[in-house]
Amino acid sequence: MASVDSTGSRVSGRLRSGDILHTGLVVALLLGVWSVGGLEVSTGKVPHLFAINGSTVLLPCTYASCIGIKNLYFNWHYNNNGSMMKLCEAVIPIEGVEPKVIVYHERVEFVGTSKGNNISILLYNITYEDDGEYICFAKNEKEKNRNHSASYMLYVVDQMKEIDTTLTTIIVSVVGGVIGLSILGMVIKALVINFLLKDDEKNKECLVSSGNDNTENGHSGAKADNKGTPKA
Q1: How far apart are CA 108 and CA 85, in angstroms?
Q2: Alpha-carbon distance 8 to 162, whole Å?
Q3: DSSP state of 117
Q4: DSSP secondary structure letter of residue 113
Q5: Cα gap 174→39, rounded to integer Å
Q6: What whole-number distance in Å separates Cα of residue 170 and Cα of residue 177?
Q7: Alpha carbon of 198 to those of 2, 193, 207: distances in Å?
Q8: Could you state, in order of their start, the residue ranges of all structural domains in the chain?
Q9: Phi and psi of 69, rounded to 5°?
């Protein structure tokens, strides 16, 4: 009986190990799916902007979640030399429902919409003091309050600098000239080859014609000699 108990305990131990392994794999897969489809916030492919002092700028921000949202909280902050200044905040209850945005800055306006996953804002009449980093933050209750943020840099300038295109123009001109010369060289080469081929064909025709004339003249001379020979 002792051996039976020992065997049974070993089998039970293997089953427990298999169950633990199976549970671990399931948890890992669930965590993988959750992380892949997790909340993401983006401020665009080019997360910075140069704007003229006194103008109005758009600070873009969008969110995305593969499993949807529930009570999505978001806000905008301005990084004022390490001190975070809140510009606005709101909660989107579910997809398609517009949020009731609380704005804390007199020159900020919320222009986003939940229908487009857009939580962008406008900043009016910017000054040099508005220069710096703006942070868009979001947190999704449906993903166990998973959060994500993205920054956007605003550079306030007195005037937009003109881009010097002289070097670009020179490079394009040189490349265009090289391509043009290459094409011209190919055309000239083709014409020369065509001319030589035609000249060679003419020479061949002249040689053939000259050979035919010589043959005919030879036959005529032979006939004349035969006619002029006196009979014996």
Answers
A1: 12
A2: 83
A3: T
A4: B
A5: 50
A6: 10
A7: 109, 9, 14
A8: 40-157, 162-196
A9: -125, 160
Beta-carbon contacts of 150 under 8 Å, excluding residues fewer than 6 positions away, are 41, 42, 43, 47, 61, 135, 136
Q: How many CB atoms lie within 10 A of CB 88?
A: 19
- CA quadruple 18, 23, 26, 31: dihedral, nearest 10: -140
pLDDT digit of tens for each residue in the chain (232 aa)? 444 455 455 545 554 555 554 555 444 444 444 445 699 999 999 999 999 999 999 999 999 999 999 999 999 999 999 999 999 999 999 999 999 999 999 999 999 999 999 999 999 999 999 999 999 999 999 999 999 999 999 999 998 766 556 666 678 777 777 788 888 888 888 887 877 777 666 666 655 555 555 555 555 554 445 445 554 4
Task: Please report, as a single letter, which amino acid is at residue 163.
Answer: I
Report the distance separating Cα 104 and Cα 53, nearest Å: 22
Q: Which residues of 104-130 are buried (b: 16+ CB within 10 A; e: fewer)?
A: ebeebebebebeebebbbebeebeeeb
* Annotation: CATH topology of 40-157: Immunoglobulin-like (2.60.40)
CA distance 138 to 92: 10
Nearest to 71 by CA among 152, 122, 147: 147
